[in-house]
C-alpha cells in the first residue's frame, strides 16, 4: 500500500514538473509572436502620430524629403528612390556573379572544391557591415575615381551599391546552389544521354528545374539589400536626392533613420515620428519581398 | 525518304557544332572560377586594405586607451570592453530562450494554428532588417516600458536585449535543425526504459544536439558583435571614457551623480558596480556604453584622415574576432559531419 502511494505521489509530481517545463518551453517559442506583434504595434502607433501631422497623400506623392529644414516636406519618394537604386546596383553585381558561382559549384566543381569554397564564400556574409562601409568609402570610391569615373563624389550610391552586391553574393550563390543541387540527377542524366554538355545541362535542365528556389534566393538577397544600413550610411551620402543616377550622392530610407538617430532625437518630436514612418515603409517593403519569395518557392516548386 | 533525311539533318548539325559546344562548356569553368575568385578576392582586398591602413595604429596602447579628441591618443578600451559586456548579455538572454523555443517547436509542438503562427513569425523575423529592431527598442525599451527604470534607457541591458531579439530567429532555426538531426531511435530507446518526455529530451536528445546548437550560437553571436545599426538607435555613445565597472583605483575619487551632486566613490560603490544589477542603477547592466562597430563608425564618419586610421585599426580587431568565431563554427560543423554517423 505504502509503495503504491509513493509511486503515485512521485508520478503526480513528475507530471506536474513535465507540465511546467512544457509551459515554459511554449512561452519561449511564443516570444517570436510577441516580438512580431511588438514590432508591428510600435511601428504602426508611432507612424500614426506622424500621419497626424503629415497627411498620407503628401507622404506618398511629395517629391522632397526635408524634415530637418525650416519648411519641412515629407515625401518618402526620394528615400525610396535611393534605396531602390543602391539595391539595383547591388543586384546588377550580385545576380550574375552569384548565379555563375552557383552553377559552377553545383554542376562543375568537385565535391571537395565545393565543400571548401562554400564556407569561405559565406564568410563574406559574416563581415560586419560597418567594415564594408569603410571599404566602400576608402577603397571602392577612390578606385572608381582613378579608373572610370573621375568626377565621382566622395559619397555616392554606386560604390555603396556595389559593396552591398558583394555582401549579398553569398546569399544568392549559396541558396541558388542548394536549389540546383536539389534537382534530381536523373534529369541531368537525361540531358547527358541526349548529348548535352555540362553547360547545356546546367542552363537548359538544372537551372529551369530549380527556378523557384533561385527566384526565392534572389528576392531574399534583394530584401537583405533593401534593409542594409551601415554601408549606405557611411558611403552613400546623407542628403535625400530624387535621382536615377547612381553616381550621385543620396540618402536611403535606412541611412535617414541612422542619421536622425545619431543626433539623439527626443521622443514626441516630428523627427522622432518620421523615422518610424520611414521604418514602417521599409518593413512593408521587405515583408512584401519575403512573402513573394515564399510564394514563388511554393507556387513553382517542382515535386520530384 | 525525305522525312528521314529531315529528321537526321538537325542531329548532324548539332554534332558539327560539337567543338564549339565543348569549348563553351570548358570556358564556363573559367568564368565560374573567375566569379568565385572575384568574391574571395574582395574578401582578400578588404582584409589587406584594413590591415595596411590600421596596422601602424595597432598596439597595446591602442587597446588600452579610451577614445580621445586627438586621433593619436585615442584607443578602443571602452569599445572592446563594451562589446564583451553587450555580447555576454545578449548570449545570456538569447541562448536559453532560443534553445527552449527550438526544442518546443521540434519536440513538443502540436500541429495547430498557434504552432504554425510561431513558425511563420520566426521565419519572417529572420528577414526583418536589423535597424527595425533598433526602432522597436527605441520606442518600447527606452521611451515605453523602460522609462524611469535604471535597467532600460541607453544601457548595456537594452543593447543586449535588442541584439537578443535580433539573433533569436537564427538561434531558434539552428536549434531546431540540430534537434531534428537526432534520430528517432534515441528518443524511443529512452521512452522504452520509462523516461518522460523531458527526461528523454534533456538527457538524450539535447546532449547529441549540443555541438550543432553551439555552432549556430557562435555564428549568431558573431553577428551580434558586428551589428551597428540597431545600437545607433539604442543610443550607444561614441565617446565613452569609462568602463562599465569601477576599478579599485577609482575609489576615493569624486564624481557627479545624476542629480548633479558631488559624491565620492566608496568601496561599496566599487563592489556594487561589479554586480549585473544593483539598486540605484549601480550594476554594470545599467551603464551607458559603446561597442567596437559603433566606435569604428564614428571614426569613419570624421573628416580627419588620422581618424580613418583609427577606424581601420578598430576594424582589424572587429574583423579578427568575427572571422575567428566563424572559422571555429565552420571547423566545428565540418568535424561534426565527419564524426557523427547515425
What report would you give on this structure?
- The complex is a heterodimer of chains A (304) and B (342).
- Chain A is 77% helix and 0% strand.
- The model of chain A has no long low-confidence stretch (mean pLDDT 89).
- Chain A has 304 residues and is an all-alpha fold.
- Chain A has helices spanning 2-53, 56-61, 77-108, 111-126, 129-147, 157-181, 185-193, 198-209, 211-227, 230-235, 253-262, 270-299.
- Chain B has a single domain, classed as MetI-like fold (Orthogonal Bundle).
- Chain B contains 13 helices and two strands; from the N terminus they run H-H-H-H-H-H-H-H-H-H-E-E-H-H-H.
- Chain B has helices at residues 2-16, 18-54, 60-63, 77-108, 113-125, 130-142, 156-180, 184-192, 197-226, 229-234, 267-273, 292-300, 305-339; strands at 254-256, 262-264.
- A two-stranded antiparallel ribbon of chain B has the order 1-2.
- In chain B, helix 4 (77-108) packs across helix 12, helix 8 (184-192) runs antiparallel to helix 9 and helix 9 (197-226) packs antiparallel against helix 13 (305-339).
- The N and C termini of chain B lie far apart (62 Å).
- At the A-B interface, helix 1, helix 3, helix 4, helix 5 and helix 6 of A face helix 2, helix 4, helix 5, helix 6 and helix 7 of B.
Decide which structural class fits the backbone of chain B.
Answer: mainly alpha
Radius of gyration based on Cα positions of chain A: 25 Å
Ends distance of chain B: 62 Å
- Kindly give the count of domains of chain B: 1
Query: How many beta-strand runs of chain A?
Result: 0
With helices defined by DSSP (H or I, 4 residues minimum), what is the helix count of chain A? 12
CATH homologous superfamily of chain B - what is it? Answer: MetI-like
Give the integer mean of the pLDDT values of chain B. Answer: 86
Strand order of the largest sheet of chain B: 1-2
Largest sheet of chain A: none
In CATH's first tier, which class of chain B applies?
Mainly Alpha
Q: What would you say the CATH architecture of chain B is? A: Orthogonal Bundle
How would you classify the helix and strand content of chain A by structural class? mainly alpha
Could you state the order of secondary-structure elements of chain A as H and E?
HHHHHHHHHHHH
Shape of chain A: globular
End-to-end Cα distance of chain A, whole Å, is: 60 Å
